[in-house]
Amino acid sequence: MSLQRLRLYQLVSPALPVGAFSYAEGLEVLVQSGRLVDAAGVRAWLEAELLRGCLCLEAAALPRLIGLQASGDWPAVGDLDQWLLAQREAPELRAQLRQMGWSLQQLLADLGWPLPASAPRLAWTAAFAHAGRSLELDPPEVVEAYLHGWVANQLSAAVRLVPLGSTEAQRLLLGLGPLLAARGQELAAADPRHLWSGGVGAGIAQLGQGELYSRLFRS
Prior knowledge:
- By secondary structure, the chain is mainly α.
- The protein has a single domain (26-211), classed as Urease accessory protein UreF, CATH 1.10.4190.
- The protein is 66% helix and 0% strand.
- The chain has helices at 3-12, 27-32, 39-52, 54-71, 74-86, 91-110, 124-134, 139-161, 166-175, 177-188, 200-207.
- Helix 4 (54-71) packs antiparallel against helix 8 (139-161) and helix 4 crosses helix 10 (177-188).
- The termini are far apart.
């Protein structure tokens, strides 16, 4: 097994200390409102986001971010990073992306890959690109890992919210494999600024998180 592949596993490991377990990205709102109640609903939600959600813009931006970081064009990195944040309507979700990005950036610095002094603080997508570049991963694999990590985290939240059994969650993840592979290949070759996001329902659900009377997750 190659060192590169082992590093890829580390990047998508649930043990990565970035706080991803604290976030559900709108799932909690959908469950409490009764609009997401079973495995079929969870699968439909995940497929919609993989096909039309803002997640696609973020994944498509990864190769561009890796290239800009490699060339040292940090102003352009910061511009693209902020553009991606602006696509997210909910303040809780923007706070999530900033917190996870800053945590990953600090972790990488502690592991020996600090950013130069001229670099801005990175939100999640740009920090993930920095991780992929630091670990010497191929950009298409970084895109695929980004999508897989998002799906795995959503399923982890669904296990606690829907409720969804752990076995059923793994069945869903296996079933989504072909779509993940196809979208990873497509988005790795796409220009994020030429894509569109149709995740209106996701945006509304994420905006509703701050209005919940009680909640388990931060977004």
